[in-house]
């Protein structure tokens, strides 16, 4: 936000959970005061009954980036969802719509069973993906079953990326892991105390949110849902959500350390003034 203020910018979301209107607290979306301080775009703009996706996020981000540039503002893209960023920058694979019956069948499978099935139809993907990576295993399996082609084959035909059309000044924050994980746990405790439980209760009370809706898989939602159903104590739900958060943070850390291009600045600095100074120097060059 400070960078956007100093550069006359617009903050544009690239986080897959923060798009949902239903989860301001549990997704750590900017507060109302934050959004009043500088312009924010693509935060809380999708209803929980809808399905967001990397393709939709990239298309919406392209529109907001173009609008910011047309207004003479700096687009400040922020978020931790690598797939959203990669789709926006590199383009999208033209995968056809997945057969709903196949999707429902795959998403209902235990992840271990889905991974075994993936070994039969796409052994390369099965070898690359962690056996417990529910989302990616299911995606690879449903694409192979529905289209008869592997996801990698579709990805070879990517199009629509912004990478060649903009000058990207990217900075990846890789702080000390212990410091990061401690902050994750402290923040999650605050979420449970400051409205996350009520958010999930309201979400579950809706009868128009499908059981397979992506919002139901957001970290904290299944755990709080189990607590509200009486299947978990508050302490157990919080502990389970902490584990899920810690696992996700580790995957993010690994992805951002290894996957982005070497030209992306990687910094372990935690002082915002140092980070902003580094970015401003590169923006001027």
Report on the structure:
This protein is mainly alpha-helical and 285 residues long. 54% of the residues lie in helices and 8% in strands. The protein is built from 14 helices and seven strands. The strands form three sheets. A three-stranded parallel β-sheet has the order 2-1-3. Helix 5 runs antiparallel to helix 8 and helix 11 crosses helix 12. The radius of gyration is 20 Å and the shape is globular. The two termini are 21 Å apart.
Task: Give the key terms.
three-stranded parallel β-sheet; mainly alpha; two-stranded antiparallel sheet; globular; 7 strands; 285 residues
Radius of gyration: 20 Å
Report the sheet with the most strands, covering strand number, pairing sense and barrel closure: 3 strands, parallel
Q: How are the strands ordered across the major sheet?
A: 2-1-3
**Shape designation:** globular
Name the structural class: mainly alpha
Percentage of β-strand residues: 5-15%
State the separation between the terminal residues, measured CA to CA: 21 Å
């Amino acid at each position: 936000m400070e960078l956007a203020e100093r550069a006359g910018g617009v903050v544009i979301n690239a986080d897959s959970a923060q798009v949902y209107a239903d989860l301001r607290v549990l997704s750590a979306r900017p507060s109302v005061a934050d959004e009043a301080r500088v312009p924010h775009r693509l935060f809380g703009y999708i209803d929980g009954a809808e399905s967001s996706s990397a393709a939709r996020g990239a298309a919406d981000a392209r529109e907001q980036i173009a609008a910011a540039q047309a207004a003479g503002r700096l687009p400040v893209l922020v978020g931790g969802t690598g797939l959203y960023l990669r789709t926006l920058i590199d383009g999208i694979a033209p995968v056809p719509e997945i057969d709903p019956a196949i999707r429902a069948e795959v998403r209902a499978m235990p992840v271990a069973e889905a991974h075994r099935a993936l070994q039969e139809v796409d052994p390369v993907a099965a070898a690359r993906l962690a056996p417990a990576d529910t989302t990616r295993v299911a995606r690879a399996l449903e694409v192979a079953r529905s289209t008869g082609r592997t996801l990698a084959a579709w990805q070879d035909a990517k199009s629509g990326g912004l990478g060649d059309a903009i000058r990207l000044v990217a900075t990846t924050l890789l702080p000390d892991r212990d410091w990061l994980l401690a902050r994750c746990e402290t923040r999650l405790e605050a979420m449970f105390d400051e409205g996350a439980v009520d958010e999930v209760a309201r979400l579950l009370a809706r009868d128009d949110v499908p059981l397979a809706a992506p919002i139901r898989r957001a970290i904290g939602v299944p755990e709080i849902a189990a607590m509200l159903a009486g299947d978990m104590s508050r302490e157990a739900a919080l502990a389970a959500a902490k584990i899920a958060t810690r696992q996700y943070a580790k995957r993010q850390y690994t992805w951002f350390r290894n996957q982005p291009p070497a030209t992306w600045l990687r910094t372990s600095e935690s002082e915002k003034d140092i980070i902003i100074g580094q970015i401003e120097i590169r923006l001027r060059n």
